[in-house]
Amino acid sequence: MSAVTVRVPAKVNLQLGVGPLRDDGYHDLVNVFHAVSLFDEVTAEPAGRLEVRVEAALDARVDVGGVPADDDNLAARAARLVAARLGVEPRVALRIRKAIPVAGGMAGGSADAAAALVACARLWDDPGEPALDRDDLVELGAEIGSDVPFAVLGGTAVGVGRGERLTSALTRGTFHWVFATAGFGLSTPAVYAECDRLRELRGEPAPQPSVSEELMTALATGDAKGLGAALTNDLEEAALSLRPSLGRVLDAGRELGAIGALVSGSGPTCAFLAGTEEDADGLARALDGAGVAAQVHRASGPVPGATVV
Ligand SMILES: C[C@](O)(CO)[C@H](O)COP(=O)(O)OP(=O)(O)OC[C@H]1O[C@@H](n2ccc(N)nc2=O)[C@H](O)[C@@H]1O
Ligand SMILES: Nc1ncnc2c1ncn2[C@@H]1O[C@H](COP(=O)(O)OP(=O)(O)OP(=O)(O)O)[C@@H](O)[C@H]1O
């Protein structure tokens, strides 16, 4: 087989309930993932050895400077895992075209890992009698990072454990989003640590999170207003504590008509829900004009996970 290209979406967390810190350094979560139409592409092509090339997607003003173009890239780790599982050498050139903001809380690195899992399995597995199915790739993804399994699956899903044990959620229709990126990144471990610190400061025991019924009902009935009201993120306070300027971005989105607003995952990207596609277009233009964000993107969800194109 020659080259395989896989398209993979970004995510926003519709509910991020953070429980106690576990002995292994992770937190128990209730993590409602939602895949949105902001895509990276990974092309895998047979080569003499494992190589990684990272570039910004055409028309995307993504700064790829901080993304490793070596073995540390999560996509390279994914290629090695698939090769080990199939008993082949990881002789592949991975070309990553990024449109998902880097270190933005939208799981860009995890998305590339998921795309590489799917692409390398397609390159190396026996098409007649595949050794690895989608579920195996979801499982392999958990060895790379907590967000990787969802990027393989896509759609909307509830993640428990550290976010890697997934169940698809019922949704109706399409939701329209606007994303405001920041000119800086936030480190995921630093944001979780800040969440713990703030809780300790208040003497507040970490709650055991549970899935929001309001959220599930809004998703199942396609109720954008209900969804906007039910969005929650336990990491938001921590992200705002580390970067108070994000508060102004959230306020601007709300004032300009968003029906829901929150920090995406560990931030710093802020996510805004609009009632209709037209509303989202208007909100994106207004937010751009307000000059509070580095970049403003329109997207919709749910969309499928890593898919061969
Ligand atoms: C913030 C989210 O993006 C929301 O989906 C994820 O929880 C983070 O997922 P991720 O980037 O794939 O994170 P991983 O690579 O698995 O873990 C990076 C670090 O984040 C923290 N981490 C992550 C997941 C989790 N359930 N609890 C944690 O405390 C830990 O410090 C961990 O060392
Ligand atoms: N393919 C990749 N794309 C982006 N970053 C990568 C990749 N591989 C490794 N990294 C590293 O991971 C760090 C976090 O990048 P990423 O874009 O995944 O953050 P994020 O979107 O905040 O993740 P999450 O939402 O899962 O917490 C980067 O600073 C970079 O050093």
TrEMBL record:
Residues 216-289 form the GHMP kinase C-terminal domain. GO terms for biological process: isopentenyl diphosphate biosynthetic process, methylerythritol 4-phosphate pathway; terpenoid biosynthetic process. Pathway: Isoprenoid biosynthesis; isopentenyl diphosphate biosynthesis via DXP pathway; isopentenyl diphosphate from 1-deoxy-D-xylulose 5-phosphate: step 3/6. It catalyses: 4-CDP-2-C-methyl-D-erythritol + ATP = 4-CDP-2-C-methyl-D-erythritol 2-phosphate + ADP + H(+). The active site is at K11, D147. Keywords: ATP-binding, Isoprene biosynthesis, Kinase, Nucleotide-binding, Transferase. Its EC number is 2.7.1.148. Residues 73-155 form the GHMP kinase N-terminal domain. ATP binds at P101, V102, A103, G104, G105, M106, A107, G108, G109, S110, A111. The keyword Nucleotide-binding applies. GO terms for molecular function: 4-(cytidine 5'-diphospho)-2-C-methyl-D-erythritol kinase activity; ATP binding. It is an enzyme of class 2 (transferase). Catalyzes the phosphorylation of the position 2 hydroxy group of 4-diphosphocytidyl-2C-methyl-D-erythritol. Belongs to the GHMP kinase family. IspE subfamily. PANTHER family: 4-DIPHOSPHOCYTIDYL-2-C-METHYL-D-ERYTHRITOL KINASE, CHLOROPLASTIC (PTHR43527:SF2). This is 4-diphosphocytidyl-2-C-methyl-D-erythritol kinase. It comes from Actinomadura hallensis. The gene is ispE.
